[in-house]
Structure formats: structure tokens, C-alpha cells
Amino acid sequence: MLDNRPVFTPEGDESLGYVHSAEYGYTAGACVAYTYLPPEYAEPGTDLEILFEGDRYAATVREEPLV
Predict the structure, then answer these.
(1) Rounded to whole angstroms, how far apart are CA atoms 28 and 31?
(2) What pTM value is reported for the model?
(3) Domains of the chain, first to last
(4) What 8-state DSSP symbol labels residue 30?
């Protein structure tokens, strides 16, 4: 995952925001992407999707610290 990729709700076509940074999180065992979201979408457990290279990938809002 790279930065500047749009973030959507699973059923939406309007971008909620963009990935600001992303790296593989070895402790979490998955890619970790940081983005600013509208408050109504920032609750832990909220399902989202990130557009990368023409495909949408599932993402879930998590609390920190990520473990």
C-alpha cells in the first residue's frame, strides 16, 4: 500500500479521504495505513476500502496501539 490512495466505504463511490502513510506492521501482521476520516467513519471496527492499482482492498478502523 502506498500513500495518496483514496479511502471509501464498502458501498460508496465518494472518497472519504486519502492514505497519508502506509507500511507493513510486523506486530499487527498486516499493512497499516493512516488516514484522516470524517468522525462518523473513525470509530474502531468501521469497515472501509482502499483503492490501490485499480482494485479495492478491505480495511478496518482500529485503535492504537496495534497488536
Answers:
(1) 8
(2) 0.87
(3) 6-60 (2.40.30.110)
(4) E
Report the candidate in 62, 67, 23 with the shortest Cα–Cα distance to residue 42: 62
Tens digit of each residue's pLDDT, the chain (67 residues): 788 999 999 999 999 999 999 999 998 899 999 999 999 999 999 999 999 999 999 999 999 888 7
3-state secondary structure of 34: strand
Q: What's the chain's length in residues? A: 67
Judge if the upstream peptide bond of residue 65 is cis by omega within 30 degrees of 0: yes
List, in sequence order, the alpha helices (H) in 1-67: none
Neighbouring CB atoms inside 10 A of 59's CB total: 21
